[in-house]
């Protein structure tokens, strides 16, 4: 399970595509309901960093305050728009898994609890 300290360190990171392109900074961290581990982050990019795009942490590596994800910038820019208003729905999670080629895993039923942590730093 991710601790608040671990999540805070993720929130301080910049995200880089596997093609070396800077994508933006981490906006939010989404946790897996069952494991409590960080599974997705949103990347703040676009005009004034107003757009947030979901990217999976699977296959990523971290060096200092930089996370290099397993996807290039074009793949991230083409990601489906998913609102960052709380819990990822099963449909949204399936869309994201398909987009990133992570298989067609059907997520487990939700408990109703949020799987996202917003921390005031």
TrEMBL record:
Assigned GO CC terms: plasma membrane light-harvesting complex
Domain (PRC-barrel): residue spans on this chain: 5-72
Superkingdom field: Bacteria
An annotated GO BP: photosynthesis, light reaction
InterPro entries the record matches: Bac_photo_RC_H_C, PRC-brl_dom, PRC_barrel-like_sf
SUPFAM superfamilies tied to this protein: PRC-barrel domain
Annotated Pfam families: PRC
Name used for this protein in its record: PRC-barrel domain-containing protein
